[in-house]
Amino acid sequence: MKIDFFKHNIGKDELKRVSSVLKSTFLTTGPVTKEFENNLSRYLNVMHVIGVTSCTAALFLSLKALGIGEGDEVITTPMTFIATPNSIIHAGAKPVFVEVEKETGNINANLIIAAITPRTRAIMPVHLYGQMCDMHKLSIIAKKYRLAIIEDAAHALEAKRDGIGVGMLSNCACFSFYATKNITCGEGGAISTNSMRLAGDLKKLRLHGMSKSAADRYSNKYKHWEMNFLGWKYNMDDIHAALLINQLKHINTYRQRREDICRMYEEHFKNMPEVRILKIVDNSVSARHLFTILVDPRKRDRIMHQLQDRGIGVAVNYRAVHLLKYYRKSYGYTRGMFPIAEQIGDSTITLPLYPKLTEKEVKYIIHCVKDIV
Q1: Is the full-model pTM beyond 0.90?
Q2: So which residues are the catalytic ones?
Q3: SS3 of residue 123 by DSSP
Q4: Could you tell me the CA-to-CA distances from 171 to 17, 28, 86, 166, 290 in Å, in that order?
Q5: Domains observed in the chain
Q6: What is the pLDDT of residues 107-141, one digit of tens each?
Q7: Which of 85, 81, 61, 83 is nearest to 73 (CA)?
């Protein structure tokens, strides 16, 4: 049996909507992008959403909109994809890593205060695998020390914790619509904010710093534009937005199917001493973006390769960032500095998780994991 690591949910409705855009005269950021932004804003219960080209772009633009740059520090986690700390470096600031929780893999909020210096400007939590960090605790810290919060919510569009959704307690929250995300347009991202000022600046920053978009300039009589400040080219276009609108309508159905699959995995693996599963905290809803198992790090690659030999697509999400060559060379990080993140990174295997997985396929994956491990 061959089981792909991921299959998207793009179907006839999405293709029909894209076809409609392609037959129109407006392909770049226009009415369809605006429709998606409005729909996502309502779904998240936030005031503003700005569509961009990736979550990486969203993180970077959020930092720039908040005035974070040269000489500043941003606290984040070493257990994440490289886009998180890379965006901080591209903004001119320095990423400062804080150890993660053993049970969840999320940044340990209890250790953040010790990492704050006079140069600290923001906290960038990552809702790993779809589980929200403790945003209540992070919000209290941020207010006390006058820090911004930029959520890396690439995994967590549907997540909630303690009655709070993503983007409700932060300056900005950043989302990904990459090929393997819960809703996808191949490449894409978005920023949510409840600040009218930030929303206005972000719309300009995503388009060279121009005061008016193409839709603004060419609707009715031509309107001159101004360049208010230096920006970049990160605007979402109507073609990509068209792929997302219908998927957003079904996002909770998709999440429930992933939840059901995760519970099957958890039920079968919970009594296996060779396998550890990260915890979903009480009073929370995980977006269930990825399902990972932790195994003996000495056997991890062998287990992973044997699963591949049996036709099962797997991945590693993620190796601890501070141990990657660039970060070791640039910042002097060494093994042992963040042992919990390192242990997760050395042990983790990501199993297939998507709504199109059949019961037969899930049972086959479970059987193979038990047999190999």
Answers
A1: yes
A2: 181
A3: strand
A4: 32, 27, 20, 11, 26
A5: 12-249 (3.40.640.10), 251-372 (3.90.1150.10)
A6: 999 999 999 999 999 999 999 999 999 999 999 99
A7: 85
